[in-house]
Structures are given as C-alpha cells and as structure tokens.
Amino acid sequence: MTDFFQNGSITTLHNLSHRPLEELERELVEFSRQRPMSLLLPSLYSELEGQALPKILDELCRVPYLSEIVIGLDRADEAQYRDALVQFSKLPQHVRVLWNDGPRLLELDAELQKRGLAPLEPGKGRNVWYCLGYILASDRGEAVALHDCDIVTYDRLLLARLLYPVANPNFTYEFCKGYYSRVSSGKINGRVCRLLVTPLIRTLKKIYGSTDYLDYMDSFRYALAGEFSFRRDVITDLRIPSDWGLEIGVLSEMHRNYSTNRLCQADIAHRYDHKHQKVSFDDENAGLSKMSIDIAKSLFRKLATQGIVFSTETFRSIKATYFRIALDFVETYRNDAIINGLDFDIHREEQTVELFAVNLMKAGQIFLENPMETPFIPSWSRITSAAPEFLHKLKAAVEADYEEFSA
Question: Which SUPFAM superfamilies match (predicted)?
Fold first, then answer.
C-alpha cells in the first residue's frame, strides 16, 4: 500500500484502499452520461502478434463506460490493416482504426506537408497526433485516456483509475498523469526515468536554481509514463514532439497552458511491466540511447524558452554535475534493491549512466547547431485555422477505410 504524502506542485491521487474495480466502474458509467469517454491506443501492427495487446483487448471488452476506442495503427500494409480490423472488431465499443500507412491518410499527410504543417518524422508522436485529430472530429468523447499497447500486466483497473480524475464532474482536473511501481521479475526497471530524467532535473536545478518549471517536473513520480488522461478541450492547443520526447513534451505543454491545480497524477497499477527497449550502447539512433538524446533535447528546448542560455561550456558543466548526481542515485537504488531482495547489476547501471552522460553532450551539441529547429507538431487549432476542412477530411478518410476494408 502506498503512502499519502504530497510533495511538489502536483496533486497526487494515491491508491490507499484497494477500492473494488466494480465500484469504480459503476461510478464511471454514471460519469459517462455527463462526460462521455474515449480511449486512444497508439499501436504497431507487430503488437497484435505479441502477448500484451490481445490480453488488453480481452480486458477492454469488459469496460462498460467507453463511448469510443480509437487505435492508431503504424507499420501495417493492407493485409495487416484488414487483419487488425478483424481483431479489434471484438470490442463492443464504437471502434475506429487509423491506418496511418494507408493511401488515404498518407494523402492527407502530404497535403499538410505542402503547407509545412505535417509531423516531421514517423513515430508515436505522429500516431498520437493524428488520433487526437480524429477524436476532435468524431466529437464522441469529453474525457480521453491514452495508454500503450505493450503492457503485459494490463488489467482494466488501470484504465478506470486513469480516467477517473478527469471524468468525475465534481473534480476540476484537466489532465492526469498515471504512475506506478516499475518493479517486476525481481528487479527495478524504469532506467531512463531513474538514471536520466530525475538526475538531469536535479542537475539543472543545481546549476540554474529552482524554477517553477523544474520544480513542476520534479513533482512527477514517473514522468515517462505513457499513460495519461485529459479533457477534450486540452487537445486543441496541445503541441507535441514527434520523437521520444513525447511524454516530457506533453508535461511541458500542460505546464504552459494550465495552472498546476488543474493537473494531477494518479497511482493506476499495483504492478506494471511492458516491452523493454535495449540500451543500444553502440547505436545512438536506437533504443534507450536515442530516447535519452531526444528527452534531453526536449528539456533543453523548454528551458531555452524560459530565457536560460546554453553554451558548450554549460553543457560540460551539466554533464559533469549529472554524472555525479546519477552515480549517487545508483547507490541509492542499489540499497533499495538489497533491502527488498531484488537483483541489481551495479556495473550495468553505471555503464548506462556513462552512456547517458555522453548523450547529454550530444543532445546539447544538436541543440546548439540547430537553434531554428521546430520541434513540435503544430497544434490542432493552427491546423483548423490554416485548413478549416481538414478535420472533416480526416474523419471521412478513416470512415472510408473502415467501410472499404472491414467487409
């Protein structure tokens, strides 16, 4: 059982009582009459061939309060899209699958490219962004949840606890970030959050002093969680990165757009495990290595918008300070693992810290060499201003794919 302690500027909604799922779902059904709910699932086709997503679909079949489920399907040819439609058709809710590699959606993407408004690179950010556009166009949900499709420990309690804060009409939260313990198979996981994000935020606070933004980011128990929920009106002005900085970028946008008393984080799972990325020590364009560079760039960009000036010399200081703080964290996690009887490979942990320290310099160099880079996908309010019919076209394309290929 977790504690009730509140720290930082973000309200934490704990799991204090192991409240029965059925009780939560009864309340959510009542909430749905006033505030309909949608679920967004960004997915690769390969995840339909794994163990996690079929189990997730079995759980979602039993969810009584969702108005729609929107799936963004990446890396799928026509045969795979048809197969995906068959597999997702078991869901009793209103379901639509965005075939992101299909000719209709690629044609719409090309239309935005001509205007300089399309996402710059493929990936989860692009997938999520188009799904958010469809949710705006469908107008079926007022509260929206997003979670990944590789959660091998999934049960529908996660979704209920994730949606509850933004679905409850008596709460004023616009956004809820999920968090959970990253302990499974006898070891502590969550390496990028433990060994990069938290030490880097503490480093930046040490060098630049506490700022409202850094204190805000330091309030989140698991900043890289892929699970969050929000009210529909959040979508319009949300600008998200298309790379691995998605989660950090979303948190930064919520800090920019809303008062912290409209934001919260909730304990959504007793246990959580998903597909683990390789560290990729020898390839900075893959795995956790690429992730660390993208996340660092996202933080540097955000601080630059607040007037913080970076140089090669400051990045050297950041690297040195980070390295010392991160190694101290390794010692802390080692002791935490020992008292809990968990495995802990201190050599591997310190190797990972060394890689992340090098990647901080790489991220800083990329930042300095390309100061005019536009890292965010445009907001949907900008899209509808530049192309007022685009959301209608997006919805029509998704519906046309469904009608043609679901038969």
Answer: Nucleotide-diphospho-sugar transferases
